[in-house]
Amino acid sequence: MHPILFKIGPLAVRSWGAMLLIGFILGYWLAIKRAGKYSIPKSALLDLALYLLLAGIIGGRFVYVLLNWRYYLHNPFQIIAIWNGGLSFYGSLGAGVLTAIAFARRRNINFWHLADLLTPSLALGYAFGRIGCFLNGCCYGVPTNLPIGVRFPFDLIPRHPVQLYAFAANILFMFVLLWYDKRKTATGQTFALYMMLYAFYRFYAEILRKGATAEILFDGITQGQVASLVLFLIGVYLWLRLTRAKR
How many other CB atoms are found less than 10 A from the CB of residue 168? Predict the structure, then answer.
């Protein structure tokens, strides 16, 4: 693994932060390319992108710390050490949605148009964030005997590279969303579809994720799987409601 890409004097450029930045830039580029379809000013997207980046980091870190409060209770100074990784996607998604709603109201932009525009960018940015996790050596999977197993430095046991699975899944989701966005029957359906796709993937990814074993709530069901079920149901509800509203 390569948690530090390179150093400039005393300054260390960490792979996780670098991949997060690359994902953000690529997601912004994709949104700019598609902005004309929704008649959303590119200048507004730049403002929103910066707000979303900040909200995603704060919201994701807040939920991650909350879920791992026992560790941070004894290591409070690690709360701000986001360069070591540790963001909850659900926290970032929730904070991002609230930020986008507030921004859309203030700029008099249709929120569902904005959500559909940004959703493929969200999948793209998330994919590169997981590459950062892989290089950082965190968020690894359970041991495996399959040839695709990766040996992480801390124990050299072949493990499922769930970070790479996440990258592949979300790149696939991005193309599916771009295809579907041209064929949807109601505004907002693209966003709802991603919620369902991500929730479906994450529910099964939890089976292979090493950290999930410490988050079991009941009968082998993890915190992430419960959150995935909730997100999937919300996605189904939104898709159906938006479809009926259009009709």
Answer: 13
Structure tokens at 114: 């904005």
10 Å CB burial of residue 148 (0-12, 13-18, 19+) is exposed
> pLDDT tens digits for 73-109?
888 888 887 766 678 888 999 999 999 999 999 999 9
Domain carrying residue 104: 4-246
Answer whether 200's CB lies under 8 Å from 160's CB: no
Rounded to two decimals, the pTM is 0.89
Count of the separate structural domains present in the chain: 1
SS (H, E, C) the chain: CCCEEEEECCEEEEHHHHHHHHHHHHHHHHHHHHHHHHCCCHHHHHHHHHHHHHHHHHHHHHHHHHHCHHHHHHCHHHHHCHHHCCCCHHHHHHHHHHHHHHHHHHHCCCHHHHHHHHHHHHHHHHHHHHHHHHHHCCCCECECCCCCCEECCCCCCEECCHHHHHHHHHHHHHHHHHHHHCCCCCCCHHHHHHHHHHHHHHHHHHHHEHHHHHHEEECCEEHHHHHHHHHHHHHHHHHHHHHHHHC
- pLDDT tens for 144-184 read 999 999 998 778 889 999 999 999 999 999 999 999 999 99
